[in-house]
Amino acid sequence: MATGLLNGTDLLLKVGSTDANEVVVAFATSCSLELSADEIDQTNKDSGGWKSIIQGTRSWSVSADAMYQNEAEASKKAFTDFFANVNARTKVYIELTIANALGSDNNVYYSGEAYVSSLSVNGGTEDQATWSISLTGTGALSETAAA
Q1: pTM recorded for the entire structure
Q2: Beta-bridge partners for 53
Q3: Which of 10, 47, 62, 129 gives 20 to 30 Å between its CA and that of 82?
């Protein structure tokens, strides 16, 4: 087995109002981080018929899916917490991290401030109710070695 490979269950999204009070998103089933950059077209007559670009503005977003819980727990973030962030138009502090990363020299985590850009709840007949969230970063996303 290759070392350093990660079980997806150990990738956690934590959210808080500051970088000191993040808690895990309750009952999450998935989370993802996406980084992107705008392209600035530099194509000209000397490009030999090939598109030529330089990197423009960078951006990032985080998303998660979770099972719906009717009431919030103080130790975890749930749908109702994010609903409050949407209504108040407040940004949150996110951290994408690895569970039990302490003591490992190779682990990193990603953190920054974001706004909720999408929040939905879903319930199918005789199915587990779920919810989804997308957060769009405002400012830089930091990469930090786990302590």
Answers
A1: 0.85
A2: 41
A3: 10
If we measure between CA atoms, which residue out of 55, 66, 56, 57 comes closest to residue 24? 66
Q: Which tokens belong to 64?
A: 């998660």
User: What is the structure's pLDDT at 147?
Assistant: 59
User: Please, what is the end-to-end C-alpha distance for the chain in angstroms?
Assistant: 25
pLDDT at residue 1 in the model = 46
| Segments of the chain with pLDDT less than 70 | 1-4, 72-74, 100-106, 146-147
Q: Which two tokens stand for residue 39?
A: 């392209």
Topology of domain 10-37+53-145, CATH: Pnp Oxidase; Chain A (2.30.110)
Q: What pLDDT is recorded for position 21?
A: 87
Buried b (16+ CB within 10 A) or exposed e, 80-115: ebbeebeeeeebbbbbbbbeebeeeeebebbbbbbe
| Structure-token match 């302490």, residue found | 102
Between the alpha carbon of residue 3 and those of residues 6, 27, 28, 70, 106, the distances in Å are 9, 28, 25, 39, 11
Predicted local confidence at residue 43, as pLDDT: 97
